[in-house]
Amino acid sequence: MIGRPRVHHRRTDSTNERARALAEASAPHGTVVTAGEQTAGRGRQGRSWLAAPGEALLVSVVVRDLAPRHALASMMAALAVCEAAEDASPEPVECAIKWPNDVWVRRRKISGILVEARPAAGWAIVGIGPNTGVRDFPPEIAEIAASLDLPAPEVALEPLLARLDRWLAAEPAEVLAAWRTRDALLGDRIAWDGGAGVARGVDETGALLVDTEAGERLALTAGEVHLRRAD
To answer: For 66-75, what is the mean pLDDT?
Structure first.
């Protein structure tokens, strides 16, 4: 069961770093690290991931025995965030997922996810940080970011852990089917470093399918692309 034991830090550098140290020290599956504030968090592709007190739910989970499904871990987490956000929000919200794992509300990002897997060691860290009470975003992201309007980040913790527990146990076919119903890019023109095309969903490995302007279909993996809307 996800959520026990739980280690909470009033302030820490990175919940993923704290969870990783616990995993290396043989912490059991489901161990959770939370924080009220983090000062050196990181997102995908080296981006910083900072959060002031009360603005976001900062949580990292130690996951064990996920093989051979490590490749779908970020999709599982994104589904959990979507469902938890819809459960916890006092106002009706509808979440979508921008491949591979950015959770959107009204086409603005409310949460990113960082999965750091060590398959050979048998564990992965799933880091999640939905915005739960941000009032003012920095100008550079004000038009692309959004926040849930929750009275406190903890309101979303229990539904998030329950949903994550359910999706981590799901079969790959079920994960992919559910993810496809929330695909925010399907049919959109997109661009990445080295090309452009139209997003056509994901294949059975979770790779993004794109039809290029040259008539070629490509399967892109999260590790090799940086997506942006072409229009």
So the answer is: 86
Using DSSP's 3-state secondary structure scheme, residue 162 falls into: helix
d(CA 155, CA 50): 20
* CA nearest to 146, candidates 176, 114, 110, 121: 110
Q: Is the peptide bond before 153 cis (omega within 30 degrees of 0)?
A: no
Counting every residue written for the chain, the total comes to 231
How is 173-227 classified by DSSP, letter by letter?
HHHHHHHHTTBSSTT-EEEETTEEEEEEEE-TTSPEEEEETTS-EEEE-GGG---
| pLDDT reading at 45 higher than 50 | no
CA 217 to chain centre: 26
Average pLDDT taken over every residue of the chain: 90
Sequence-distant (6+) residues with CB within 8 A of 219 are: 203, 205, 207, 208, 209, 210
Give the end-to-end CA distance of the chain in Å, rounded to a whole number: 43
DSSP 5: S
Q: What's the whole-model pTM score?
A: 0.91
Helix (H, G, I), strand (E, B) or coil at 111: strand
Per-residue HEC secondary structure of 118-155 comes to: EHHHCEEEEEECCECCCCCCCCCCCCCECCCCCCCHHH
